[in-house]
Write a structure and sequence with these properties.
The protein is an all-alpha fold. About 55% of the residues lie in helices and about 0% in strands. Among the domains are: about 35 residues; about 30 residues.
Length: about 110
């Protein structure tokens, strides 16, 4: 356990002593470790991990089979973008808004 201890020296005010203490606490990393431990979440057991992996492998096999049969079309993924309505956003991006190029009047 790490302790942060500060003693008042000479004519030092209480506020400066508190600042010194908070600086020492920040430097020691106590708050960071406490916040990391605040919400402990147990890891999944081996059985749960194994079942999840087997289920994903099975889903992938079924999807690949449907792709071969032509029942599903493969969609390209765009990572980093989350569009709610892709067809509407693509149309709106092509159209130029009337006030978009004009400078802002203040």
């Amino acid at each position: 356990m790490i302790n942060a201890e500060v003693s008042k020296s000479g004519s030092e005010t209480a506020i400066s002593t508190i600042r010194k203490f908070s600086r020492k606490v920040r430097g020691s990393g106590i708050i960071k470790t406490v916040r990391d431990k605040r919400y402990f979440e147990r890891g999944a057991s081996k059985i749960v991990k194994k079942k999840r992996t087997l289920k994903s492998i099975q889903r992938r096999k079924e999807y690949n089979q449907l792709l071969k049969e032509g029942k599903v079309t493969e969609e390209t993924r765009q990572y980093g973008r989350m569009t709610r309505f892709p067809s509407k956003t693509s149309e709106s991006q092509q159209k130029v808004r009337p006030n978009e190029e004009a400078p802002a009047i203040r």
